[in-house]
Amino acid sequence: MADRPADEPQGAAGGGGGEDVVDDEIINQGAIVLRGYVMDNINQENPELHVTPEVLGGRSSEREDPIIKDIVDQLIKISDELNRNAELQHLINTVQGNCAQDVFVTVARSIFADGINWGRVVALFHLAYKLIYKALTQNHFEIIQRIISWVLQFIRENIISWLRQQGGWVGVISRVNHWYTLSILAAVAFVTAVIYWRRNR
């Protein structure tokens, strides 16, 4: 899926293009946000990897948009608890970096089994980040963009309406005030999801 420039105006609900145009913009911006989230986490965890947007299928210019940076920064704040949770990190290691799409979808669906919030969206991104990190360190480069496409397909099929109601990705900036609470919820959702996957694989 080709990305549009990061600074291209995002459609508004009720605009001339309708919901399909808005949804396309949300997906396109979501790809940029996801790559930013993955890069910031990987570069913090292992700076020697030198991950760039191009490695993840993007363009260097997409990091220049300050709004994208603010969105990614907010998602990173929510994810702090995920990185500190030792049990979660152990469970993540049971999901192989070269897992099949059905395994990814099973875990992703269980994350959102009882609702959608920004914490759970971050948990989805965190799953992608961990799988991409494993792919990079295990030389499974061919599946990196495949994982990103799985995330975007899942968003389009399962949570696009909710994102539209939030006003798109910028909603995480304006609507999340208690990000620590959401980070706890994200961690619980992710642990539950991985336990579910381990019991049902």
Shape: globular
CATH topology: Apoptosis Regulator Bcl-x
Largest sheet: none
Q: Pick out the low-confidence regions.
A: 1-16
CATH class: Mainly Alpha
Mean pLDDT across all residues, rounded?
79
Instruction: List the secondary-structure elements in sequence, H or E.
Output: HHHHHHHH
Helix content: 55-70%
Secondary structure tally, helices: 8
Strand content: under 5%
CATH H-level superfamily title:
Blc2-like
**Domain count:** 1
Name the CATH architecture.
Orthogonal Bundle
Number of strands: 0
Protein name: Bcl-2 Bcl-2 homology region 1-3 domain-containing protein
Organism: Denticeps clupeoides (denticle herring)
Keywords: Apoptosis, Membrane, Transmembrane, Transmembrane helix
InterPro entries: Bcl-2-like_sf, Bcl-2_BH1-3, Bcl-2_fam, Bcl2-like
Ordered list of secondary-structure elements with their pairings:
Elements lengths: L17 H28 L20 H19 L1 H7 L8 H11 L6 H20 L6 H22 L5 H5 L3 H22 L1
Helix pairs in contact: 1-2, 1-5, 1-6, 2-5, 2-8, 3-8, 4-8, 5-6, 5-8
GO molecular function: BH domain binding; channel activity
Protein name: Bcl-2 Bcl-2 homology region 1-3 domain-containing protein
Keywords: Apoptosis, Membrane, Transmembrane, Transmembrane helix
Q: If you had to describe this structure to a student in words, what would you say it looks like?
A:
The structure is a single chain. The model is unreliable at 1-16 (pLDDT under 50). This protein has a single domain, classed as Apoptosis Regulator Bcl-x (Orthogonal Bundle), CATH 1.10.437.10. Helix 2 (66-84) crosses helix 8 (179-200) and helix 5 runs antiparallel to helix 6. It is mostly helical. It contains eight helices and no strands. GO terms for molecular function: BH domain binding; channel activity. Belongs to the Bcl-2 family. The chain crosses the membrane at residues 179-197.
